[in-house]
Amino acid sequence: MDKVVRLVSERGVVLFSKSTCCLCYAVKILFQELGVTPTVHEIDQDPEGREMERALMRLGCKAPVPAVFIGGKLVGSTNEVMSLHLSGGLIPLLKPVSGFALS
């Protein structure tokens, strides 16, 4: 759990993903379209991936991936990220941590 907490605190936008996950890909594309480059951790390619998965679940993730953190706080998975975006709530969360002038 310490590794996950450390990784989340090091960058403004952090995405825990699996390289074969289509929902993870959708979240990556959304951020790309918004001009945001999250720090992506492919947990299926990390030797500590299984422990990271368990840590994400303990932190409140309903599913281990995708898990999006903005400003060190858990936003959630695809559902929560897409809902925030559609309701206009995602960009205000991203502005202070992304370093970009999002519209």
Automatic annotation (TrEMBL):
Its main location: cytoplasm. Residues 13-75 form the Glutaredoxin domain. Keywords: Cytoplasm, Redox-active center. It holds the Pfam family Glutaredoxin. It is found in: Cytoplasm. NCBIfam families: GlrX-like_plant. This is Glutaredoxin domain-containing protein.
